[in-house]
Amino acid sequence: MELLISMKAEDINTTVFKQGTMMDMPSDQENGYFIMEIRDMNPEKVRILHEYAEKLQEVFEESEEYIIETSETGMKIKNKVDETKPYKKEWDKWADFAKRMHDKLEKYVYWEIIRPKD
Q: Any idea what DSSP says for residue 84?
């Protein structure tokens, strides 16, 4: 299983240029989310990830802080960035959380696959 960690936010000021270059300065952003994507190409593992995502959606049903999504290859967990806290420290905490979650999900998926079916 693969783990991808990223951050996505909305630009506050849109630029007048339609296309940017690598030399453009980053613009101010708001409404950001840290994103953890766990994916796999094995259909059985993806099915188990989707089941787990459904359980997480129930837990965080009324939360505006977390968004749980499924994809063709796995699942995503998005966490609302607290803009009042230092970004670097929050990113480090998110990366640590994502790694621990990935490790636990790998074990969970493994045991679900080898567990005898009734």
A: T
pTM of the full predicted structure? 0.75
Within a domain: 14:
no
Residue closest to 38 by CA, chosen among 85, 87, 13, 74: 74
Residue 94 belongs to domain spanning: 2-7+31-114
pLDDT for 73-94, tens place per residue? 999 999 988 888 888 899 999 9
Burial 1-39 (b: 16+ CB within 10 A, else e): bebeeebeeeeeeeeeeeeeeeeeeeeeeeebbbbbbbb
Are 102 and 3 in contact by the 8 Å Cβ rule? The answer is: yes
